[in-house]
Amino acid sequence: MPAHDLATEPTLVGELVELRPFTGADAPRMAQILSDPEVRRLTGSVDTSAEAEQAQPVDDHLVRWYTTRAEQPDRLDLALVDRATGVVQGEVVLNEYDDDGRVANLRCLVGPDGRDRGLGTEAVRLVCDYALEVAGLERLTLEVFEFNPRARRVYEKVGFVQTGTRLEALVFDGVAVAAVDMELTRRSGSAASR
Ligand SMILES: CC(C)(COP(=O)(O)OP(=O)(O)OC[C@H]1O[C@@H](n2cnc3c(N)ncnc32)[C@H](O)[C@@H]1OP(=O)(O)O)[C@@H](O)C(=O)NCCC(=O)NCCS
Predict the structure, then answer these.
(1) How many helices (H) and strands (E) would you count in the chain?
(2) Is residue 154 part of a domain?
(3) Structural domain count, the chain
(4) In a domain, 4, yes or no
(5) pLDDT-derived band of residue 25, with 50, 70 and 90 as boundaries?
(6) Which of 39, 153, 166, 180 for a ligand 1 pocket mutation test, highest count of atoms within 8 Å of Cβ?
(7) Is the pLDDT of residue 193 over 60?
(8) CATH code, domain carrying 46
C-alpha cells in the first residue's frame, strides 16, 4: 500500500468552486488561461515580459497533458470550475510528491476572469483539506515570488507559514526576484477550520 493516495481523482465541491479531474477537452480553455501574461509571470513560467505576452498554443503536447493528468499516480491535477457559470477558471495541482515525509508541492493558478472573487482561496482550502485529511499527506509546501502579494495573502489565509526565503529564485527581465517558501502541516489542523 502506498503511504498516500494521490492516484484517486476526487471531485471536491465548495460554495464557489468545484475541483474536478481534467480531460483533454479542457485543453483549449486552459490554453486561454495559460496565455494570460499575469499567470505566466507570477507562476515563474517565463523569464521576460516579451515571453509573458506569448500565447500558449493548443498543440498536441497540451492536449496530451490534460488528457493524461487523471492517470498520474503520484500527483493530483484538478480543474477549478466556477460553480456559478460552470466555466473552468484555473487549476490546482499537487506535484513533486516525496514519500519521505509524505510531502507534496502545491500550485494554483486562476485566469483573469476568475481572479479576486474568492475562487482561489476556496480552491486552495479544498485541496489542502483533501490532501491532509483524506489523501494521507503530512505536509504541503509551495513557493511564492515577492512580486505576488495576492497569492501570499491567499496562502496565509489558508494557514501556510513562511519557512524560508530565496533571494534569487527567478531572474525576470534581468532583475533578481526573491521567493518565500511556505508550508502547511497536518498537525496545524484542517484548512476548513481556519
Ligand atoms: C493567486 C491566485 C491563485 C489567488 O486566487 P484569487 O481567486 O484571485 O484570490 P481570492 O479572490 O480568493 O483572494 C485574494 C486575496 O488577496 C487579496 N489581495 C488582492 N490583491 C492583493 C495585493 N496586491 N496585495 C495583497 N493582497 C491582495 C484580496 O484582498 C484577497 O484577500 P481577502 O479575502 O483577505 O480580501 C490567483 O490570483 C492567480 O492565480 N493569480 C495569477 C497566478 C498566480 O499568482 N498563481 C500563484 C503562484 S504562487
Answers:
(1) 6, 8
(2) no
(3) 1
(4) no
(5) very high
(6) 153
(7) no
(8) 3.40.630.30
